[in-house]
Each structure stands twice: as structure tokens, then as C-alpha cells.
Amino acid sequence: MKQRDTLIVITGPTGVGKTATAIEVALKLGTEIISADSRQVFREIPIGTAAPTEEERRQVRHHFVAIKSLADYYSAAQFEHDVMEMLPGVFGRSPRRCAVMCGGSMMYVDAVCRGIDEMPTISPEIRTRVWGMYQDCGIEAVVAQLELLDPEYLKIADPCNHKRLLHALEVCFQSGQSYTLLRKGQAKARPFDIVKVGLNLPREQLFDRINRRVDAMMAAGLEQEARTVYQLRHLNSLNTVGFKEMFAYFDGIMDRDTAVERIKKNTRVYAKQQIRWFAKDPSVTWLAPGHDAADRIIGMAGV
Predict the structure, then answer these.
(1) Nearest-angstrom CA–CA distance, 109 and 106
(2) Other residues' Cβ atoms within 10 Å of the Cβ of residue 116
(3) What's the rounded Cα separation, in Å, for the pair 24 and 19?
(4) Is residue 69 a contact partner of residue 2, using CB atoms and an 8 Å limit?
(5) Please, which residues bridge with residue 8 across strands?
(6) Which of 44, 102, 104, 162 matches a 20 to 30 Å C-alpha distance to 52?
(7) Distance of CA 168 to CAs 37, 157, 238, 280, Å?
(8) Beta 33-35 vs 284-287: how paired, if at all?
(9) How far, in Å, CA of 145 to CA of 259, rounded?
(10) Would you state the pLDDT for residue 2?
(11) Within its chain, how far is the Cα of 135 from the centroid?
């Protein structure tokens, strides 16, 4: 007899088909979906974040989709707290005591599966200070500050992950301590079983899907969506693929066709980053999306 609740995690690179598979799994199990996408939480940008459609959300109840405004602050730590509070209710409503978590935001997935270290809440003043430094002086200024405040972190940090470098500096300023000192990296025990599945495709197929999805987004109105939020382009929530390129087009930095091609390229780069991140996790079982993927995932979960 099943003794513990089960969280089924469906992750992998952008554009691979996670949402469709998660909906199929959730429908077959009679449960709900936790979205682990750091941009789908914002209600104003459903096209650019490929958020579940109204029809998909009518089929299966989705949590953490369109719950915040672009100006609201939301973090992986808050996501961990909110999901851990919500999961008992989701398990209780499920006849098989299970839930599905779907998304490719690496820190959000890790926050729930492993937990993240307790970090100070970053004040608006500190966030504005660090973001202003980055905008005015470039990432080099941020790195220079980290060299003074936390050289140990710089030894292991990804120099291309500007968002992570900015956050590390925010923590240093806010806490008065090094980011390294506050990072313990120890997984937290969870009161439920976790079955983690990664969906992936051969690179050529994945990139073709990404390119076609960007075309579909443009046809669905991504340009107009970006124009609607253009006046908010300074917000960190819009510092993301799809909107950065559209804003550059609006500013006359590149033409429309170039912006669309740049979105495709940058999305492919992000997909490769996701694959590299999740490939380091030995608990992930990799599958190809397809007609039998949902049944195989349910079989693996044993629910």
C-alpha cells in the first residue's frame, strides 16, 4: 500500500512539450499542476511566457500561473514557501495522493525538490542599487564588487549568469556577509516522495520546435503584448528572452526580422543551459515526449 504522498516533477528544456505531458498525467491521475516557471507567475505576459491557455487551465487546475503583477517581487525562496504550504491540500484532493509540478525554471524546481538556503529578503533600495550599477556600469562593475565582498563565490560562479551574480551581490549588501557564507547547499528532507522526469529531444528536433513556437508566439500577438508592457521595461521581470529583443526592436536597435531571429537564437541558448543544469542531477530520468510518455511517467511514480 502506498505510504507517502508523491510529487511528480516534469521538467526539461523550453519548448519540449512539458505542459501537454503534465496535463495528460494530471488528467489521468485526477490531480492538479504546480507551475514551476518563474515568468508564468506574471499575469500581463501570457504569450511571451507560453503560459497554459484558458482551455488548458479549464482541463486541469494550475497553480502559480498569473498570480503576480510585473512590478511585484517574487523569488525562488517565496515559491518554495508557497508550494510547501499548498501541497498538503493538493495531495488531499487527489484520489491517489499525488501532485504534478511542471516547469523548466531551474531554481524553482530545486527550491521545491531540495530546498534553498535561507537568504535575507532584498529591500527595494538594495535591488535598485545593484540593478542601477549593472545598467550604468555593466556586469564588470558587479564582478568587481563581488571580488571585494565574496571572491570565493566568483571562483565557482557562472560568469554568463548575470542574474545569479546580481543576486549574490544583493545578498552581500543586504546581509553584510558573503553569499558563500550563507550558502549551505544541503538538501532538505521532504515529507513526500519525488519522482523527477526530464523531457528532451534530439537537438535538431528541439531547436525546430523552439523556432516554430517563436513563430506561433509572434502570430499570437507577442509584439503587441511587448508594446503593452514597454513602459515597464526597466523591471527585472521583463529582463527575459522575447521581451528584451522586442524592446530592442522598438528602440530602433534592430529591425523586426532580426529581433525575431534573435529571440529564436536566445531561446535555443537558454534551452542548452537548462539541459546542462538538469543533466547534473542524477535523480532525473530522461524521456522523449510522445504518445506513451504520460503512461510511462505514471508507471515510474507507482501511483
Answers:
(1) 5
(2) 19
(3) 9
(4) no
(5) 100, 195
(6) 162
(7) 21, 10, 20, 22
(8) unpaired
(9) 33
(10) 57
(11) 23
Digit-coded pLDDT (tens) for 130-151? 999 999 999 999 999 999 999 9
C-alpha cell at 42: 506574471
Q: Which three cell numbers stand for residue 197?
A: 522526469
pTM score: 0.83
Question: In the numeric block, which cell numbers belong to residue 296?
Answer: 510511462
CB 266 within 8 A of CB 245: yes
Cα–Cα distance for residue pair 19/33, rounded to 1 Å = 9
Do the Cβ atoms of 52 and 19 come closer than 8 Å? yes
CA 248, distance to chain mean position in Å, is 23
Counting beta carbons within 10 angstroms of the beta carbon of residue 146, is it exposed (0 to 12), middle (13 to 18) or buried (19 or more)?
buried
Tell me how far apart the alpha carbons of residues 107 and 111 are, in angstroms, rounded to a whole number.
Answer: 6
β-strand pairing of 98-102 with 6-11: parallel
Residue type, 144: A
Please give the sequence-ordered ranges of beta strands (E in DSSP) within 224-295, or none if there are none. 284-287
d(CA 254, CA 43): 27
Rounded Cα–Cα distance for residues 283 and 293 (Å): 18
Per the CB < 8 A criterion, the answer to whether 300 and 285 are in contact is: yes
Domains of the chain: 6-116+187-301 (3.40.50.300), 124-182 (1.10.20.140)
